[in-house]
């Protein structure tokens, strides 16, 4: 790992402004790092070195002219779900083969407007459906972390597995990601990186390929809490093109780092203890509680009684919305087309060939729960459960809790092609047991690395906050990071 790629965004920003390094040098260092590593890690599905060089040179010109933006010259990786003009945007699905949008997503446009440089598009689970990055049409991403003394290939989590692996392996300074049920926080936890899913409405969803529109939210994966704060500040905005984006000022998230936790109340939900959860996750949670207490926070036990219904309700709401959103991929407008004897035959052949197994499963579940006769029994019921989950959180916050601390995932990273998981999709779905509640309630959640398990693999803690109170999450996560330290994998790739 060259020195330049080991700089955090905050460090690189300083050196660029002080003219100790140039944006083109930094960009070239990342391009070389990606070239050397991507065959092994498969984090990028498309690299854009020529575009990166053009952007970096422009950044150097702006720096020289004293016109540097907040992210001037910072090389980033972009999840394949974000529309980028003229560049591979396929949600890692075969059905979007060859699709290059003519428009830019609002989130990526915000980053470029602040001077960031695009290195390429990152691997992900197909249409963001998955928890291991193994549903990608482009093959699995390999986690840069390995268990001590083992060569076994591990998954980086999903669906933003390429984003998390690229950040952990220093193949970009930071990455965009999205989270519908845990896809920012779970991969962050599996790779020792920081990921924040902001409040629903904090970032515009415009130009982000839709999975489940009432749950989808963009956010960053970064090497540390400060970098995540810097990235979210740039990504977030109100947007006339997404009516669910919210017109609230975007705070200076960085400004809260280092503030005291005195007077804060942290809630510990009893329901986030699940059967079969390894003892070391429980230990990590207790350690997190101790750190926050030491920092002056008051710890209170809380109850979120509908937690156990969140996962089943999510697996009704998310596939229902997905089945509707994915109806547009029919071989007519974009991507793959498989010819048939008439138009209906063409639709069927295209969708049969273009979607992977997991996506097909979701479309079928979604179509079923929305069909006449089942709509009330499943979909309407799941929506009611969703309201109850939201209310659980509201009651806790109304009682004076400022943030909630939970484990981020029920385990550390597991193996690629794990037999145990392949046989039963529900086991894979259980990865999101601690994260889906947050999407169902529309709240912000951050995953921050807090330690290593007995095999030397990273484990994360999650903090859940009030709507639009990302500042409290950054401030509290920073305290955990200061206590736990940062975690970088030993290089083998
Ligand atoms: N793993 C969850 C799923 O497969 C969440 C995915 C996501 O957040 N995009 O639906």
TrEMBL record:
Transmembrane segments: none annotated. One of its GO terms (molecular function) is ATP binding. It is an enzyme of class 6 (ligase). Keywords: ATP-binding, Ligase, Nucleotide-binding, Protein biosynthesis, Transferase. The active site is at 79 (charge relay system), 159 (charge relay system), 183 (acyl-ester intermediate). Belongs to the amidase family. GatA subfamily. Hydrolyzes indole-3-acetamide (IAM) into indole-3-acetic acid (IAA). Allows the formation of correctly charged Gln-tRNA(Gln) through the transamidation of misacylated Glu-tRNA(Gln) in organisms which lack glutaminyl-tRNA synthetase. The reaction takes place in the presence of glutamine and ATP through an activated gamma-phospho-Glu-tRNA(Gln). This is Glutamyl-tRNA(Gln) amidotransferase subunit A. It comes from Rhizobium aethiopicum.
């Amino acid at each position: 790992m060259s020195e330049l790629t080991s700089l955090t965004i905050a460090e690189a920003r300083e050196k660029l402004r002080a003219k100790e390094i140039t944006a083109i040098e930094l960009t070239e260092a990342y391009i070389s790092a990606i070239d050397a590593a991507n065959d092994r890690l498969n984090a990028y599905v498309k690299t854009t070195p020529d575009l990166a060089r053009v952007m970096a040179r422009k950044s150097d010109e702006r720096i020289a002219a004293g016109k540097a933006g907040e992210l001037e010259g910072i090389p980033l990786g972009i999840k394949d779900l974000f529309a980028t003009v003229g560049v591979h945007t396929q949600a890692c699905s075969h059905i979007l083969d060859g699709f290059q949008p003519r428009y830019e997503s609002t989130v990526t446009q915000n980053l470029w407007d602040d001077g960031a440089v695009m290195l390429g598009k990152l691997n992900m689970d197909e249409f963001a459906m998955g928890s291991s990055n193994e549903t990608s049409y482009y093959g699995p991403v390999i986690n840069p972390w390995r268990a001590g003394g083992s060569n076994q290939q591990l998954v980086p989590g999903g669906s933003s597995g390429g984003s998390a692996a690229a950040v952990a392996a220093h193949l970009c300074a930071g990455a965009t990601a999205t989270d519908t049920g845990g896809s920012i926080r779970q991969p962050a936890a599996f790779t020792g990186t920081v990921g924040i899913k902001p409040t629903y409405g904090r970032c515009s969803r415009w130009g982000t390929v839709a999975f489940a529109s009432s749950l989808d939210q963009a956010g960053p994966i970064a090497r540390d809490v400060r970098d995540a704060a810097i990235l979210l500040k740039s990504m977030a905005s109100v947007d006339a093109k997404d009516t669910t984006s919210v017109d609230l000022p975007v705070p200076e998230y960085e400004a809260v780092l280092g503030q005291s936790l005195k007077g804060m109340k942290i809630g510990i939900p009893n329901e986030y203890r699940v059967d079969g959860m390894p003892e070391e996750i429980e230990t990590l949670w207790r350690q997190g509680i101790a750190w926050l207490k030491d920092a002056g926070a008051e710890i209170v036990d809380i109850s979120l009684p509908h937690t156990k219904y969140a996962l089943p309700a999510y697996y009704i709401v998310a596939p229902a919305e997905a089945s509707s959103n994915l109806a547009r991929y029919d071989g007519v407008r974009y991507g793959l087309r498989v010819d048939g004897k008439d138009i209906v035959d063409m639709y069927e052949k295209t969708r049969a060939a273009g979607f992977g197994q997991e996506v097909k499963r979701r479309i079928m579940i979604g179509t079923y729960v929305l069909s006449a006769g089942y709509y009330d029994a499943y979909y309407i019921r799941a929506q009611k459960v969703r309201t109850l989950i939201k209310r659980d959180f509201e009651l806790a916050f109304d009682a004076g809790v400022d943030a909630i601390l939970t484990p981020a995932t029920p385990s550390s990273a597991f193996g690629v092609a794990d037999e145990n998981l392949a046989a039963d999709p529900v086991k894979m779905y259980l990865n999101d047991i601690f994260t889906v509640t947050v999407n169902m309630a529309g709240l912000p959640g951050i995953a921050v690395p807090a330690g290593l398990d007995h095999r030397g693999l990273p484990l994360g803690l999650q903090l859940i906050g009030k709507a639009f109170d990302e500042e409290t999450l950054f401030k509290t996560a920073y305290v955990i990071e200061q206590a736990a330290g940062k975690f970088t994998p030993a290089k083998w790739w």
